[in-house]
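Internal ticket - ligand job 475, glutamic acid:
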Amino acid sequence: MSSESPDLLVTRFAPSPTGYLHLGNARTALLNFLAARKAGGRFILRVEDTDEARSNEDFMTALFEDLHWLGVHWDEGPDIGGPHTIYRQQHRRTIYEEWLSRLDSAGLTYPCFCTPAELNISRKRQLAAGQPPRYAGTCRNLTSEERAERLVRGLPAALRFRVPQGQVVSFVDLVHGEQRFNTDDIGDFIIRRTDGSTAFFFSNAVDDALMGVTLVLRGDDHMTNTPRQILILQALALRVPQYAHVALLLGMDGAPLSKRHGDTSLRELRDRGYLPGALRNHLVRLGHSCVTDGWLDDAALIADFDLKRLGRAAAKFDDAQLRHWQKETVAHLSTEEFVSWIAAVLPPGLDAQKQAQFVTAIRGNVELPSDAKQWATVVFGKLEEFEPAALAAIREAGEGFFTEALKVIGQPGAEFKPAVKALGQATGNKGPALFMPLRAALTGFTHGPELAPMLALLPVAEIQARLEHARRLAV
Ligand code: GLU
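stdout (structure tokens):
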């Protein structure tokens, strides 16, 4: 057991590596990390891979990468070790066997020979009778001869925990307040499966206690598991942690966040170019209310976090909110960070000064690297396509407008502002009638970043070629 001070807050994230990190789990990981950092405590990563058929090494590696990318870093874990040595449940079997045998010696377990088909029939019968389904206790009262006879026949046996009857299990949930569960409503549950692996209820609770976890902060889909886990811990005289069950992540329609809402894994959003700061700022506000409305950097996020402000409000993952935080995060990138974020869209060999100039020119109009790509094509490539509105603006301005433009804009050494002013005087065009056709001719769009800084990156010959092309389009 942990020798650390009993006051130290120890949290953990305990994912099962059966897929890419879901946004709901990413939120849970972030909240646990922030809680530990805020309190100066410890944050543990424990991989719950007892279900060997569904767990996979690649998902585990991806999980480590995605968490670090999000800015969630652990003090103990499978990759870095720690005082509890083993942080993958697959490798903790001997430990579980020892604790299982303690339950066994106390007479609190029994082998169960019920087959999945038998359990299914019993469950259906209970449901049909309007009762909540729970283990009917078929194998609870087998005599030792009956047990021995079944074992000799080689029948597969799971191990069940003998739930005490007529008791109330209560605990104070940090989010939901006092919770009370009657043990008569809890059937004896499996703690070791027929294949010898320990079940979640058991290994998860025992590990929390052995690793000195003081706060279990997880999704409220686990709320009804908690009394079972408390019963096991009490039976083993292990320390019961505090619990905080946060609302499950929902889509905007109120249904649990799933594929039909779009991207649900952190990796998909990362691949689309979302920044970790955007996800941190959105996720922290799901189930936790921040004091600060504005964008929070890493340190401010920790400072703002407070377990007392975990709340019951529905946690809806909102694309519009995510995009808002993405814009904020982009605005907070330094030029160097911005350049490395969009490196893939920059022409190879572009010097650092031009890279910086480009970033300054476009940053206000970029939400995702795909936006930067569009402006990189405008600035460093050839204009091949024109938006319909851009074509219309060019035609509306007419050939004469561009004949005049060619005389003043894109002349060697010409400054953009005075040149546009001169063009206005020569053509009599003002405001949008002056700027829109120019923007359309030079970028192919009727919207976008401020023109002058972009044009400063375009070779004079290219500006001329675009104006000439627009002149011909306007004929
Ligand atoms: N492995 C469990 C899960 O992924 C952990 C739940 C918990 O945090 O206790 O749901």
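Auto-summary: The longest helix spans residues 23-39. The mean pLDDT is 95.
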